[in-house]
UniProtKB/TrEMBL annotation:
This is UDP-N-acetylglucosamine--dolichyl-phosphate N-acetylglucosaminephosphotransferase. It catalyses: a di-trans,poly-cis-dolichyl phosphate + UDP-N-acetyl-alpha-D-glucosamine = an N-acetyl-alpha-D-glucosaminyl-diphospho-di-trans,poly-cis-dolichol + UMP. Pathway: Protein modification; protein glycosylation. The keyword Hydrolase does not apply. Belongs to the glycosyltransferase 4 family. Its main location: endoplasmic reticulum. The chain crosses the membrane at residues 51-74, 86-105, 125-146, 158-180, 186-202, 214-230. Keywords: Endoplasmic reticulum, Glycosyltransferase, Magnesium, Membrane, Metal-binding, Transferase, Transmembrane, Transmembrane helix. It is a multi-pass membrane protein. InterPro entries: Glycosyl_transferase_4 (IPR000715), GPT (IPR033895).
Amino acid sequence: MLLLVILIVLSIVAYFFTDELIPKLKELFIKAGIYGIDLCKSNKEKVPEAVGVVSGCVFLVTSFFFIPIAFGHSLMDTEHFPHNEFAELLAALLSICCMLLLGFADDVLDLRWRYKLILPTVASLPLLVVYYVNFNSTTFVVPIQLRQFFGVSVNIGFLYYIYMGMLAVFCTNAINILAGINGLEVGQAVIIASSIIIFNIIELQGDQYKAHSFSLHIMIPYLATTLALLKHNWYPSKVFVGDTFCYVSDY
């Protein structure tokens, strides 16, 4: 519970820091030529794009600060150090960091669609490798309606990893394809993140409390920085989030 309180405090700080940082960096994006024209407005004012990189960076820095807090009690006890959980967190942050870089590169270089299909799959490799080493469970539960045909569960083997790689591509483009209306991408990300956090809190008393606690460690600072970004992206939008935010939100 103490860790959760500390994480919430860090996330609140991250919210205000992101909220202060975005207006100060607007002109920097425009001077660099990273801007667009908002078709939802009658004026032709330049609106900075790819500002999702700001919230993404603050989120990563907040998560990095939380690592020694979350694992500090185990640092001196190397024999019982939770290496698996530590590797999972680092792999998740590495994938998010890769997606942040790839998304910003897409905003700046305007990558072709074939690269947008390949790069998210590559960025998911750290997560898939850690999952393979720690769990390697490729069995999924069959819906009740289909159990008479396939049984209670089905092991799909290596196809599971292919599916997860394809899922990363789908989620990235599913958020990105709805872009065009002020606050839409960030708004749906806030709703999804809030739903996941509520579900995790409810399930903290269950058997999988470690998995839900791990999810909270990522989702709470993400929600805080995303709310700050939504404040500036809400109509009338002062900034555009760009593909950078869509790539990061996938993970």
